[in-house]
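Researcher: Final request for today, and then I'll write up notes for the group meeting. The sequence and the SMILES for zinc ion follow.
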Amino acid sequence: MATAKVPNKKRVCPNCGRKMVQQFIGLKHCKCGMSWKKDAGYFERTPDMVFALQRQASGRKVKQRPVIRHKDG
Ligand SMILES: [Zn+2]
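Model: Predicted protein-zinc ion complex:
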């Protein structure tokens, strides 16, 4: 059985205390509008934010990582 190096703790929203729901690996959302991104930490989601999954070549493997885009206009 494989064990992860970092325990996958359930992230709780710092704003309202509810459990955050994972949308992608490294990206979680809360119903109240808070989001968490692995390398950015907690931030407040705005209506112009678009969340997507981007493929990134890492050696021979292709990793998928969440990216935040902003709608323009
Ligand atoms: Zn919340």
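Model: The first strand starts at residue 21 and ends at 24. The pocket of zinc ion is lined by residues 13, 15-16, 18, 30, 32, 34 (CB under 6 Å).
Researcher: Thanks, that's everything.
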